[in-house]
Amino acid sequence: MSTKVFISHSNLDPERGWLDAFARALRDRGVNVWLDEWDIESGEDWEDAIKTALRGSDAIVALISGVHAESPNLYFDVGVTLGGNKRLILVVDPSAAASLPSDLRERRWVALQAPEETAREVEAAISAPG
Predict the structure, then answer these.
(1) Is 105 exposed, middle or buried, given 0-12, 13-18 or 19+ CB atoms closer than 10 A?
(2) CATH code for position 14
(3) Using CA atoms, how far apart are residues 81 and 99, in angstroms rounded to an integer?
(4) What span, in angstroms and rounded, lies between the C-alpha atoms of 31 and 28?
(5) Distance between alpha carbon 16 and the CA centroid of its chain, in Å?
(6) Which one of 18, 61, 67, 117 has the largest count of C-beta atoms within 10 Å of its C-beta?
(7) Which domain holds residue 117?
(8) pLDDT of 1 over the 60 cut
(9) With a threshold of 0.70, does the pTM exceed it?
């Protein structure tokens, strides 16, 4: 799969191990994953690297937990995604769903589960037509 996927997440999220396992599971499925901790080099400007990666991605997977649901960075990432006609795939911790604004809450989203199961559902969403 040649689709480039940017993973949007909060660095304040306590589930770092889950995120790494999820990103690896996507890569194992052939998804070209961009994850800030993996792809930004030492000394590189963090903000510039993220903006470049967002623009160069075909799809954005937004991992939304209670922490990320209130992050301005989430809404920046979503804006770039929708403004660039890119595919937006929301992976939502069900306990955070109520904190999402209605325009995101009303979209179909993938419930956060075990990393491998979530990666399977996300890969299917990326591969789906439309």
Answers:
(1) middle
(2) 3.40.50.10140
(3) 20
(4) 7
(5) 14
(6) 61
(7) 4-127
(8) no
(9) yes
